Amino acid sequence: MDQHDPASTAQPERADAVPTADAAPAPRRSRRRRTAIGLLTSGAVAAGLVLGGSAVATGWPDDAAGTGLTATAGRDGSGGWSGTAWGHGDGDGSGAPSTGLLPGAGSSTGTGTATLDATTATDAQQQGVVLVDTVLGYQSAEAAGSGVVLTSDGLVVTNNHVVEGATEITVTIGTTGRTYVAEVVGTDATADVAVLQLQGASGLATAALDDDGDLAVGDGVTAVGNAEGGGVLLAAGGTVTALDQDITTQAEGASAGESLTGLIQVDADVVSGDSGGALLDDEGEVVGITTAASSGSTDITGFAIPVGDALDVVTRIVAGQDTDTITLGYPAFLGVQLGTVPGVGGAAGATGSSGATIAGVIEGTPAAEAGLAAGDTVTAVDSTAVADADALSAALADHAPGDQVTLTWTTADGTARTATVILIAGPAD
């Protein structure tokens, strides 16, 4: 998959209609765009979005103190919850339950003793469930998650956070082991839903979706997914403990918190890598898309997006509705890193001047080719002034890969510069 090819943003032709779920509740979602994913809270319960797998990233420092870029030990103390780009970690290598999500990836020699309560999924449970592997090329990292097949020609729904930042995505069919390259059809970060299209797929077995919408507290459920990124679909049984639950990501540093609402709460032992997988009812039908798990105690509390809510987003994406929360295909990409601290990509440069100060430039991107460098301050896009990093991001978000834009900036030594660049397709939004 060539992320630099503007043609990669084209929406695939669809042969199958998107399935719907009868009697599904109306979606209840925040409309605010997520800027980062961190700790989740639901009342007094802390939780972290389940993401990534056991694959360890390269190119990130290991920070066992939990203050830097590394997620460390999992519940079993083996680093099984260490992820890539985003992962679970207790921050001190003790093997205690994860206290949230940390950027980066890592490993640990912690001493925790809890074990994963899951077994290999049966063929029936695996039907329509897939393993999702991603490469985060700009972060020198990899990640793993799960997904659910909606159509025989390869339309797959997963969580947005499973593919966020991905430059390459491959999907493996659980029952056959066949692997496909996947393209992003669209994402909705606020709903934590992403839609993928498997290239060249046909005749795939699809997941059976719930058709009665009568899920109730106390019902038995099974979460099926790529638990801990092990490359095998595991099944974790449990019961529904609550419905219509709201959880909120806790703000971390400069990143605002985000809300997910109307979720199914379960006591199934869901872990890193299960994200995007299927939550099955006692009839073997998909009632939810696993998306989060608690991290405040040894007893796991899982959360899933009701399948009707997820399909509502899928329908909008496939219909080509580019909204404030939905990104179709891949976003336009300049290739700069922006912070939020004044003088380091924040609201003003070190001298207090208006503009977006560049914290870093990624090699091989339009920004690098134009000559932008860390410490430069972008002051305008297409002659329209930008006041800060948010304004620059917003200006670029209005463009598509392949668009030509003119940048105006001031170098760190005060020299005024202007250049015209062609934006490329960036990593998944």
UniProtKB/TrEMBL annotation:
InterPro entries: Chloro_Bact_Ser_Proteases, PDZ, PDZ_sf, Peptidase_S1_PA, Peptidase_S1C. It holds the Pfam family PDZ_2. Residues 329-413 form the PDZ domain. GO terms for molecular function: serine-type endopeptidase activity. SUPFAM superfamilies: PDZ domain-like (SSF50156), Trypsin-like serine proteases (SSF50494). Residues 1-32, 67-114 are annotated as: Disordered. Keywords: Hydrolase, Membrane, Protease, Transmembrane, Transmembrane helix. Residues 17-27, 97-114 have a biased composition (Low complexity). SMART domains: PDZ. GO terms for biological process: proteolysis. Residues 1-11 have a biased composition (Polar residues). Signal peptide: none annotated. Residues 76-94 have a biased composition (Gly residues). It comes from the Bacteria. The chain crosses the membrane at residues 37-60. This is PDZ domain-containing protein. It comes from Cellulomonas pakistanensis. The lineage of its organism: Bacteria, Bacillati, Actinomycetota, Actinomycetes, Micrococcales.
